[in-house]
Amino acid sequence: MTSTNAATTAMMPPEGTLPSRLFAAGHRADAARHVARFGPVPVPAAADLVMELRASGLTGRGGGAFPASKKIDALAGPPGTIIANGSEGEPLSRKDATLLEHAPHLVIDGLVLLSAAVGPGARLVVVAHPDGAESVRRALLERRDGGEIEVRVAEDRFVAGEATAVVAGLSGAPATPKDHPVHLTERGVGRRPTLLFNVETLAHIALIARYGAEWFRSSGTADDPGTRLFSISGDGVAEQVVEVPGGSRLAEVLTAIGVEPTSIQAALVGGFHGRWIAAGDFGGRLVARPADGNGNGNGGIAAGAGVVLLLGAASCGLRVSASILDYLAAESAGQCGPCVLGLPRLSHRFAEYSSGRDSDPSGVRYLIETIPGRGACHHPDGTVSLARSALAVFAGELDRHRSGSCSEGGLA
Amino acid sequence: MTRHAMSAPSTSATLHIDWTRCQARGACLDLLPDLLRPDDDGYPLAATPPRERSDVPVPPAGLPAARDAVDLCPRLALSLRPLP
Ligand code: SF4
Ligand code: SF4
How far off is chain B from A24, nearest CA to CA, in Å? Predict the structure, then answer.
């Protein structure tokens, strides 16, 4: 599987289907339309912005779902660098590129506002994929306060979007994750406190600075306030980015984009590091942090990096999962033994077991139990979580493969 | 879910493994047989399943040996951290 980041065009939500805050200034909003819709960048007192962020309950939209205000509170001092991370390593993710293409000024506003509030004099950097970077560069030329903002093109690798990898890249090293005993808010770029937010998080900050925490909470639920972007793709749906209220039910989102529920057997939510959700559980709410901590069931479905991949009734979830695992194993950044050696083994074992060629589950189970927690980044854990959920959700498919057939027809 | 919490030994520190440095040289495995065991490739694997395997809990009695392991790891991959 290859990355679609540079190849496809960013997709706006079909007009009128879902409420949109981030794209309210319209397609490819330039500075004039941005200001006409949202007004100029406000100048809230530093304390006020941080207070509003705290009250808003905004969580990071890059996948970690960490409260935005807590990151600011954790700063060990004025940040030397503030980073807008739009590197979006997920091959299925288009939300950051789409946001940078259609609402670059909101992201820049967020960066400028944060800098004024917590890091006057900080180096401001936007890291994005080539098309997103181009859009930001264009937007910066249109405004007076953009002169100091640096734009960097991200490496097109899965783990390059990880926060410590982005920081390593900005410090002149290869963009691979680093062991991080110390939080970036204490020591990051140039060993100084560093603030890194996903570009969508910054765009929300720009809106909260204008309209306040109460307005932000007027969409979404108490435990998952505001809206969030999802990149949706897969069987029976045109690839698109939609903005949905926090806590929306997956089924509602699918209905809103016109997906026929009976045609779908499962959805991979959260991206390649996410989990498969069976069609029977589409009533679950998409939230930043599920109450039960494991990403599905009654506590809600972890939105993760905002990716939904739909699997049609005639597709084989085990085959799709095996190919994703294959990709993820190859994307290991080559640093941590248990990840470098373990993931190819997991991918191989998974393929053998899920195809029915190997009937002994102990091998794949051993890897699922021993790999997590043994890398410098979340990559091994996320990869295992995908494998584990695939085996649980596609148990029926597993049985079919054992008896020599497959949802996609023919032999497994 | 509370199984591990109930059986957790009294812990004084955690042994942090920097996986970007560790190259399965095995010195720590010899020194800390109660805490670590080798995986199939010789990389240290926590002997009991904690949630976070990059930070292996060290009971008070194990501290001297853990300090030795930190000093002797040829890759400087180990460090002792106080409990948060
Ligand atoms: S865990 Fe894997 S992907 Fe992450 S830094 Fe280590 S080798 Fe790289
Ligand atoms: S002694 Fe160091 S390099 Fe060797 S296995 Fe232990 S941590 Fe890894």
Answer: 42
